[in-house]
Amino acid sequence: xxxxxxxxxxxxxxxxxxxxxxxxxxxxxxxxxxxxxxxxxxxxxxxxxxxxxxxxxxxxxxxxxxxxxxxxxxxxxxxxxxxxxxxxxxxxxxxxxxxxxxxxxxxxxxxxxxxxxxxxxxxxxxxxxxxxxxxxxxxxxxxxxxxxxxxxxxxxxxxxxxxxxxxxxxxxxxxxxxxxxxxxxxxxxxxxxxx
Length: 195
Hints:
This protein is an alpha/beta fold. Helices cover about 45% and strands about 15% of the residues. The protein has a six-stranded parallel beta sheet, sandwiched between helices. The chain is elongated, with a radius of gyration of 18 Å.
């Protein structure tokens, strides 16, 4: 399970949103849900629905939240309290959880493991989209050497140079992979991400 900073997580969520996509954020601080909502709100497109944070106390609450919010990013807190039986019930009734957008479950380590162990069908919806929130909740500031290391890794990954990536972005021909957006941001050319 990869550790990820809050701002990077929000970016990946916005860039990879698809119908009925589910993901898990593992943290001991459910209060980060509002910070995550704010980051997603900052990054979302003008035609996209504002993200919502839903606090639930039961499986029934989750079903109601899904029904009430079929579109837009939904961040769910409270599911960490679900028992084995609750997760099994959700797994058996997972079609009632289908939405037209992304759902983010904020869970602690124990509840994330419980979901994976006793709700295999729901876990298959989540797949590899399980992220451990890095200890730092504020956007990390990279040193110049860390920026250069990351840029070197991106250059190696893509087999391209900075000038070529900027040129492709200016021409509207840059692939939509999140790595390219990160690359432009690290180069100080986040302005090219607006399309």
